[in-house]
């Protein structure tokens, strides 16, 4: 795929970016170079390459998985507008 001056103007209009005529001429070459690199990437055989989430291989830091009762409910319920018997009281939404 090749980008021409009209395409650069159209992309700029869609992106709502003001591009001066001198900049548009330079962008034609830059976008064509970028598209050339993308085409080179498409030629690579990535069939046996697993998907990655980062270029640096590292795992997620894990914490010990413990079941707790949540600690002390009193400080949490102090923030509630209304509570009763250790629970939040909410308005009835279904009649």
From TrEMBL:
The answer to whether keyword Lipid biosynthesis applies is no
Q: Extract the SUPFAM superfamilies matched here.
A: Glu-tRNAGln amidotransferase C subunit
The chemistry this enzyme catalyses reads:
L-aspartyl-tRNA(Asn) + L-glutamine + ATP + H2O = L-asparaginyl-tRNA(Asn) + L-glutamate + ADP + phosphate + 2 H(+); L-glutamyl-tRNA(Gln) + L-glutamine + ATP + H2O = L-glutaminyl-tRNA(Gln) + L-glutamate + ADP + phosphate + H(+)
Task: Give the enzyme's EC designation.
Answer: 6.3.5.-
DNA-binding recorded as keyword: no
Output the Pfam families linked to this UniProt entry: GatC
Q: Which family does the entry's similarity section mention?
A: Belongs to the GatC family.
Q: Relate the protein's function as given in its record.
A: Allows the formation of correctly charged Asn-tRNA(Asn) or Gln-tRNA(Gln) through the transamidation of misacylated Asp-tRNA(Asn) or Glu-tRNA(Gln) in organisms which lack either or both of asparaginyl-tRNA or glutaminyl-tRNA synthetases. The reaction takes place in the presence of glutamine and ATP through an activated phospho-Asp-tRNA(Asn) or phospho-Glu-tRNA(Gln).
Name of the protein this chain belongs to: Aspartyl/glutamyl-tRNA(Asn/Gln) amidotransferase subunit C
Q: Which organism is it from?
A: Aquibaculum arenosum
Identify the taxonomic lineage of the organism of origin: Bacteria, Pseudomonadati, Pseudomonadota, Alphaproteobacteria, Rhodospirillales
């Amino acid at each position: 795929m090749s980008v021409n001056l009209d395409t650069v103007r159209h992309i700029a209009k869609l992106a709502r970016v003001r591009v001066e005529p001198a900049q548009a001429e330079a962008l034609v070459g830059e976008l064509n170079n970028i598209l050339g690199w993308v085409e080179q990437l498409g030629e690579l055989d990535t069939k046996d390459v697993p998907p990655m989430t980062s270029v640096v291989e590292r795992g997620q830091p894990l914490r010990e998985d413990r079941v707790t009762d949540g600690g002390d409910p009193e400080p949490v319920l102090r923030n509630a507008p209304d509570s009763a018997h250790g629970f939040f009281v909410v308005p009835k939404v279904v009649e």
